[in-house]
Amino acid sequence: MKIFIDTANVDEITKYADLGIIDGVTTNPALMATEQRTAIDIIHEIVKIVDGPISVEVVSTEAGRMVAEARHLDSLHENIVVKLPAIPAGFEALNVVVREGIKVNFTMIYTANQALLAAKLGATYVSPFVGRLDVTSTGGAELIEEIVTIFDNYGFETQVLAASMRNSIYVKYAALAGAHAATIPPAVLEAMIDSEMSRMSLDGFLEVWETLPEESKASLFDGVEE
Ligand code: G3P
């Protein structure tokens, strides 16, 4: 399963890239704006930090303009994946840009049928918004299962990119359902790494270890240097 980081913050991206756990990055206009920096500078920095798919979204809502923005984003770097929104104009733009070889992350997917159509049109990724769907009590985890099943049924190459992962449980559900990738905000990545139980268990082991006489402890790691 590919893990993408869902942020436009270059410090967070650097931190998790150094940890070796991220395969790519997804941004959106709101995440970009949160940084209060020049958007193009952020993109130039991200492509240097992570050598993997970097999703950047168009901001127009009109098909012709979306196509123009998609072409421009695609020209910025070979790793850029253009995010198009799942609105009627987005489908129109998708149909045009995939024929030009532009990689598309079709985003804001809320139904399996939207994903089916995006796959038929040749999107590289579809991004179902699990957390936002759960807010309306309609089952974000089930949506991932449905899309994975549909893609398997017909051998679509489009990858399911579980998005809006507002909780680490969603990541587990997406992995169990066979999502090809999940895009995860830094705070949720942190929650996946850190378990209070792991830290408490370690504290317990080391507490007992400390009861061993100094000379017996020293013998185990004699001569070890960092
Ligand atoms: O990048 C898009 C997506 O993951 C949105 O997440 O938390 O704003 O619903 P969220």
Question: Summary?
Answer:
This protein has 12 helices and 8 strands. It is α/β, with parallel strands linked by helices and 226 residues long. An 8-stranded parallel beta barrel has the order 1-2-3-4-5-6-7-8, surrounded by 7 helices.
The span between the termini is 33 Å
Give the CATH H-level superfamily.
Answer: Aldolase class I
- What is the level-2 CATH architecture name? Alpha-Beta Barrel
Bound molecules: SN-glycerol-3-phosphate
| Named CATH topology | TIM Barrel
CATH class: Alpha Beta
Q: Helical amount among residues, as a percent range?
A: 40-55%
Count of helical stretches:
12
Arithmetic mean pLDDT: 96
Characterization of the model:
The two termini are 33 Å apart. The mean pLDDT is 96. The longest helix has 15 residues, at 140-154. By secondary structure, this protein is an alpha/beta fold. The chain has helices spanning 10-19, 29-34, 39-49, 63-76, 88-97, 112-121, 130-135, 140-154, 168-176, 186-193, 196-209, 214-220, and strands at residues 2-6, 24-26, 54-57, 80-85, 104-109, 125-128, 159-162, 181-184. An 8-stranded parallel beta barrel has the order 1-2-3-4-5-6-7-8, surrounded by 7 helices. It has one domain (2-194): Alpha-Beta Barrel (TIM Barrel). Helices cover 53% and strands 16% of the residues. The chain has 12 helices and 8 strands. The chain is elongated and about 75 Å long. Bound molecules: SN-glycerol-3-phosphate. Residues 6, 26, 28, 129, 131-132, 163-164, 166, 183 line the site of SN-glycerol-3-phosphate.
